[in-house]
Amino acid sequence: MVSRMDDRKLSVRVLVGMTIAMIGLELPVFAVPPSSPLLMSQVACKVIKTTPVYKTANTGDSESLMSSLPVGTLVGLAGTLPGVPPARVQIDQPMSGFVDYAALDCGRTSPSTQAKSSVCRTVKNTPGSVSVFRAPNWQSKPIDRAVLAAGQRVYVTQPKGSGSITSQRDAKGGVWVEVDLEKTFNGKNFGILSRVGWLFNSSPGDPNTTLGNGGGCS
Fold it and tell me: pLDDT digit string (tens) for 41-72?
């Protein structure tokens, strides 16, 4: 009698074990989600002006992560850049954060400028100096140290073979012309990847322009 009870208990244990095993086989196996790919630096730059490393890309936020990056420091940008870079760019080397792009020299030629030539113009008599901006509008940030005085030579770009100066209108109809930074400022690009900036030239209905036809270029 005892033997039969033991056999029955053993049979129940075996059956329960097999049932649990079968349920386990039928349950779906959830794959471990892959880790996010590392963000690799696609552009290497050098600091040409001592700059803090900020927490955010917002230029109105002055909170920094460390005191500053000294001139000559090599940094890696976390991604590619548009033809007109933002005021602050994200870096991932030697640390993660945001720095002023005007403080960097990324040492690359934008493909968009390779199909352009440049032509000389001069700044007309103005009551003061005029700044070259990052983009063709007043809301963009002036390029630090890219300042022009009356009578100074300015090299503006034009598509090769077109004979027309590269220009754009802003929201109010003002005309901006594209400036070749390196030719205008003796080889300096101020850390601008595209090596070009924008200069306001005229307002709608106003015959006065910032640039003359280049009488002082010869």
Answer: 345 688 888 889 998 988 888 888 876 888 88
